[in-house]
């Protein structure tokens, strides 16, 4: 019988996880079935309990349940603990384990583009959960300095206060979105500005060599501005594939190559 996996969220129809995991399985010769599970907003815990009670092996978690998944886990990886959110679940000896593979997915996506991360200065726009999840893996990959720009400065400052002890080898700095300036190796848009159609204006005082948009499949004013400057840029599909590969390898002990699926 094939191994059972799933992704849980609300909404869930848009998820591309099943096609990715089935593609990884075909490539690696693993027999698995990966399904989508819609959980009611007040029914997440029951949904995951039901899945594992029926012999499920591993589960991905998408919005809005990543913080709830974190709270349910008895064992957390270091990167999940620092992120404060979980997107990958599995049972070991009846104990629920959780990891967060989003940040590593971003690292792998950037490496697949052949952009250097070692000793780099990075600007991340936005101070929400997406940013919290990627700081530790970026620093582990060799990033030297991360500046977080946010509309509400206090939120960026709080994020840095929460994370600075976890990444003592890197310099973290918070700035207001209105103070965007400086020279960076990579800038990353972790806001929903592109999704909501809000114009995210990148001033001339802000210089950068590469631009990464975490969202994918939607028009992006952020990417438009990077392209207008002739800067190498990419949207977040690689990050999606990268985090899926990381989950797949945790569950199956085999790691497909990201470049095979881009």
Automatic annotation (TrEMBL):
Which UniProt keyword terms apply here? Answer: Amino-acid biosynthesis, Aromatic amino acid biosynthesis, Coiled coil, NADP, Oxidoreductase
* Oligomeric form and interacting partners: Homodimer.
- State the organism named in the record: Acinetobacter schindleri NIPH 900
Q: Where is the active site?
A: 66
Domain SDH C-terminal per the UniProt entry, residue ranges: 236-258
Known function: Involved in the biosynthesis of the chorismate, which leads to the biosynthesis of aromatic amino acids. Catalyzes the reversible NADPH linked reduction of 3-dehydroshikimate (DHSA) to yield shikimate (SA).
What gene does the UniProt entry assign to this protein?
Answer: aroE
- Name-wise, this protein is Shikimate dehydrogenase (NADP(+))
A GO cellular component annotation here is: cytosol
Entry coiled-coil feature ranges: 146-173
């Amino acid at each position: 019988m094939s191994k059972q996996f799933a992704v849980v969220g609300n909404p869930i129809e848009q998820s591309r996880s099943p096609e990715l995991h089935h593609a990884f399985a075909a490539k690696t010769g693993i027999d698995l079935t990966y399904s989508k599970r819609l959980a009611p907003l007040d029914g997440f815990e029951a949904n995951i309990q039901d899945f594992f009670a029926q012999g499920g092996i591993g589960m991905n978690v998408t919005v809005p349940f990543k913080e709830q998944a974190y709270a349910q886990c008895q064992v957390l990886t270091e990167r999940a603990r620092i992120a404060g959110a979980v997107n990958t679940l599995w049972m070991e000896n009846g104990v629920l384990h959780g990891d967060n593979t989003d940040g590593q997915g971003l690292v792998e996506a950037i490496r697949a583009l052949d952009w250097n991360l070692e000793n780099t200065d990075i600007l991340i726009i936005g101070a929400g959960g997406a940013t919290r999840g990627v700081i530790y893996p970026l620093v582990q990959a060799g990033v030297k300095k991360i500046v977080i720009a946010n509309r509400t400065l206090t939120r960026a400052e709080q994020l840095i206060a929460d994370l600075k002890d976890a990444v003592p080898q890197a310099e973290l700095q918070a700035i207001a979105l209105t103070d965007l300036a400086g020279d960076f190796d990579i800038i990353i848009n972790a806001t929903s500005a592109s999704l909501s159609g809000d114009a995210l204006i990148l001033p001339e005082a802000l210089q950068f060599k590469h631009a990464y948009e975490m969202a994918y499949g939607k028009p992006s004013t952020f990417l438009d501005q990077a392209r207008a400057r002739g800067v190498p840029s990419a949207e977040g599909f690689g990050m999606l594939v990268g985090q899926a590969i990381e989950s797949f390898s945790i569950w199956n002990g085999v790691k497909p190559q990201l470049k095979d699926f881009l």
